[in-house]
Amino acid sequence: MGALIPAALPPGPQAWRMVGDRYGQWGQTPEQVVAGVLGHLLEAARLLVGPPVRGALSALACLPVLDPLALLASAPLVAVHALSRFGDQASLWGYYALPALALWLLGAARGLQRLRRVSDALVVSLALLPLAVGPFTFAVTWPTAEDSAARATLASLGAREAVAAQNALVPHLPVSDAVRPLERWADASVVVVRPGANAWPLDAAGLGALVERLVEREGFGVDSATRALVVLRRGAPRERVGEVLGWFREAP
Q1: What does the alpha-carbon distance between residue 249 and residue 252 come to, in Å, rounded to a whole number?
Q2: Category of 245 on φ-ψ map: left (φ > 0), alpha (ψ -120 to 50) or beta
Q3: Which end of the chain, N or C, is less surrounded by CB atoms within 10 Å?
Q4: CA-to-CA distance for 108 and 87, rounded, in angstroms?
Q5: What is the pTM for the complete model shown?
Q6: How much is the average pLDDT of 144-162?
């Protein structure tokens, strides 16, 4: 965070300042964040053992607790995320849990190995405990037909015209100089957005306001639209503008 991420960012006052954005409640620089955490150890400890961490450990029947070394090794990885004020990160949503989870799985395996010396039946019982506490189904609800169609549409964009995309959609677009972040919509002839998807670096209200501006004042119309993907194009028809704006106003 102190070296690699700043080196990857463009210069200038508009560049994303990750430490301040993610950890501003503790400080604005890595050194200030460390000092802030050390000065508020009880608050930091509360976050380190908060519901996201307890939930992840519970899903492993708390077996990693049987291997203190794995827990200790995972503590810095958990702290990087649990101490953030960015909700998705602090909740260990998506890929944020993976670094610590790798160590917890190792700890769970080592914990089971220790328990085998006591009883194989105990090992099986603990391994099945998560199913008893939190039953789950194997139903797969993604991708839907709309998701698949949206992905095909995204794959066809960016070859001959400039496309500005919501951050959550950029990884699904071709690697091309024609693809740019949403904040550079003025340089694009096509804008792709998705209601209800992660709006970062905007929030849901900000994304909705931008879509409204594009269709009401900047000459964009609706080229195609489903709840999985909205393609706005300069000069496109406006028949579905009201419907699309309604989706973004409903988005949480």
Answers
A1: 8
A2: alpha
A3: C
A4: 27
A5: 0.66
A6: 88
DSSP β-bridge partners for residue 164: 180, 191
Q: Which two tokens stand for residue 78?
A: 């958990």
Helices (H), the chain: 4-8, 18-23, 30-39, 41-48, 51-59, 68-82, 87-90, 98-116, 120-133, 145-155, 204-217, 241-250
What per-residue string of b and e applies to 29-54 under the rule 16 or more CB within 10 Å gives b? Answer: eeeebeebbeeeeeebeebeeeebbe
Report the distance separating Cα 94 and Cα 145, nearest Å. Answer: 22
Q: Is the pLDDT of residue 8 over 70?
A: no
β-strand partners of 180: 164
Query: 235 exposed, middle or buried (CB, 10 Å; 0-12, 13-18, 19+)?
Result: exposed
- pLDDT at res. 133: 61
* pLDDT of 186 above 90: yes
Instruction: Tell me the two tokens of residue 35.
Output: 């000092």
Placement of tokens 């694009």 in the chain: 188
